[in-house]
Amino acid sequence: MKKSVRLHFTIGLVISLFTLQNSFATDGYFSLGYGTKNKGMAGAGVALPSTSLINGNPAGHVFLRKEFSVGVAVFSPSRQYTISGNPSGAEGSFGLMPGTVKSDKPAFLIPSLGGNWMINKTSAFGFSVYGNGGMNTSYPTKTFDSPMAEVTSPTGINLSQLFAELSYSVKLGKNHAFGFSAIGAYQMFKAEGLQAFMGMTSDPTKLTNNGTDNSLGYGLKIGYLGKLGDNLSVGAKYQSKVFMSEFKEYAGLFAEQGDFDIPSSWTVGLAYEFSREFTLAFDVKQIRYTDVKSVSNLLSDVSPLGADDGSGFGWQNMMIFKLGMEYKYNRDWTWRGGYSYGTQPIPSEQMMFNILAPGVSKHHAAAGFSRVLNRQGNAIHFAASYSPTASVSGKNNMDPAQTIELKMSQFELELGFSF
């Protein structure tokens, strides 16, 4: 198969897979990593050019050769909530049916695509398309049942996010580079079974069961990558808040009449090459969920849903620490591994609304490999990650007689190909 035909086939395959793209959650509602190599290191590698191709450090592109990469992941999360204690029946309270309910839709396909071209010896152009993250729950019950409204089943939300980046990077001297990326974003959102909150919204007709709505937006990312010595590299990147158009069909659910921007984040990291074969990378990342009122505002009966300062999920900023290793066994085989720990974004005082978005995972372990197939450098890549069961529990903030526990575990397998 000729290279141009193979490239067009690959692009067509990924575009078709993106129509199946669904939501997932790892670092809150962001992905653990991007691209198969990066996921094999649990998302570490802001100081490594090899992990920069897909939503990585834009400064790293100028250290790469001409390259294309495509990957498909199978992501399988397990989400559930448990209600303990009977409703108090107190005036103004909102009690839930006791018991444990698991979310349906246990597996999703997550594709990615990236490419890089050298403009000259000191500058490069790149692009990537990828699923960023999101939230998904589909409980086969009337979770928020109420005698005041006719509530439908199932209960849940689906937030899917698709990103495209165009990147430019340039060397300053032999060992230092800067880069930036223009970001375009597309979101889809749907909510079901939230009729019980009609007394808490500024617009009951734009609260729930309005089908899938769409949102478009833009943002910017900048990065630096440099070598401080023969063995030590440092990297940093900052992604701005991605400004999204409002979900008009859910203007009565999200604060600021349906606004759901994507929060900013920053990452800094080091990579140390102990030998030509073994490299260790360490990253620190912060996701600033407090940038977005719909995500960070507290759920309150005095702040109507959809209002300028309306109620939200109460999420806090998240700090994430990632350690990854890469071992080049020989010319053809490279092995990777990593561990990631993130602070909990969901406070125990905000259990009620977060039944819809139980992104409570904190610990992730990952492993992967690359196998070079020929002299042209074509290679296959594999990554696997696992997050053991994590939980958060606290009082039902709308009926303190009850306790709500949220649980989540997940694993992911990804296969990639570069040429």
What is the gist of this entry?
The protein is mainly β. Helices cover 8% and strands 47% of the residues.
Question: What is this structure's SSE topology?
Answer:
Blueprint: H1 3-18, H2 36-40, E1 67-84, E2 99-102, E3 108-120, E4 123-136, E5 156-171, E6 176-192, E7 213-227, E8 232-239, E9 243-244, H3 255-258, E10 265-273, E11 278-287, H4 293-296, E12 318-328, E13 333-342, H5 351-354, E14 363-372, E15 379-396, E16 399-418
Antiparallel strand pairs: 1-2, 1-3, 1-16, 3-4, 4-5, 5-6, 6-7, 7-8, 7-9, 8-10, 10-11, 11-12, 12-13, 13-14, 14-15, 15-16
Describe the overall structure:
This protein is mostly beta strands and 419 residues long. The protein has one domain (3-418): Porin (Beta Barrel), CATH 2.40.160.60. Helix content is 8%, strand content 47%. It has 5 helices and 16 strands. It has helices spanning 3-18, 36-40, 255-258, 293-296, 351-354, and strands at 67-84, 99-102, 108-120, 123-136, 156-171, 176-192, 213-227, 232-239, 243-244, 265-273, 278-287, 318-328, 333-342, 363-372, 379-396, 399-418. The chain has a 14-stranded antiparallel beta barrel. A hairpin with a 4-residue loop joins β5 and β6 (176-192). The longest helix is centred in the N-terminal third of the chain and has 16 residues, at 3-18. The protein starts with a helix and ends with a strand.
